[in-house]
Specification:
- Residues 32-46 have a biased composition (Basic and acidic residues).
- This protein is an all-alpha fold.
- The chain has a domain at 27-58.
- It is built from 2 helices and no strands.
């Protein structure tokens, strides 16, 4: 009997179907990543707006 290393075991699981829990976790991660990106872009936009306001007020 041969011994498998961790990488071989990880690659062996690639052919199996995604479980419902994995699908849910993946979808949740995607949603969180999208929300984080939207928050970052909003913060950047507001930061630029504040800087322009400060510059024009001087």
């Amino acid at each position: 009997m041969t011994k498998f290393n961790i990488e071989e075991l990880k690659l062996a699981g690639l052919s199996r179907k995604e479980t419902t829990m994995e699908k849910t976790a993946r979808a949740a991660r995607e949603i969180l990543e999208d929300e984080n990106e939207m928050r970052r872009s909003k913060n950047e936009r507001l930061r630029r707006s504040r800087l322009q306001y400060k510059r024009s007020g001087q």
